Amino acid sequence: MNMEFIITHASQLLVIVAVICTLISVITEFTKEIGFLNKIPTALQVLVLSITICVIAFFAYISCVGIAFVWYYLVAVIFAAFIVAIVCCKGWDYLIEIWKRFYRTKE
């Protein structure tokens, strides 16, 4: 694969994750004090919102592009939703620290 192709797609993916994180944070901020939502932990609300929005965005994307649905795409999206939830709850720095902890550069 061309390195430029990889960089372009990686940057587009980061923008999409950032937009979804912003959307989840705004929705959570406005709804966490409403009804039964003030009785559940905010992290649980973020996780459920993250899975819901990521799955909806995934199905919207594959229907717009015309990609055939394969079950393991959905599994990958659900795993990605956990990463989005971590970013929403604890921030990008926390995710980067986890990455550094498991993928240390060899010097």
- Estimate nothing, just give the exact number of structural domains: 1
Helix percentage range: over 70%
**H/E element order:** HHHH
Uncertain residue ranges: none
| Oligomeric state of this protein | single chain
**Gyration radius, to the nearest Å?**
16 Å
Question: How much β-strand is present in the residues?
Answer: under 5%
Q: What is the molecular shape?
A: globular
Largest sheet: none
Task: Map the helices and strands.
Layout: H1 3-31, H2 42-65, H3 71-90, H4 92-102
Kindly list the characteristics that best describe this protein:
107 residues; 4 helices; mainly alpha; globular
Summed up:
The chain has 107 residues and is mainly α. It contains four helices and no strands.
Commentary on this structure:
This protein is an all-alpha fold. The chain has one domain (3-102). 79% of the residues lie in helices and 0% in strands. It has four helices and no strands. Helix 1 (3-31) crosses helix 2, helix 2 (42-65) packs across helix 3 (71-90) and helix 3 packs across helix 4. The longest helix is centred in the N-terminal third of the chain and has 29 residues, at 3-31. The two termini are 27 Å apart.
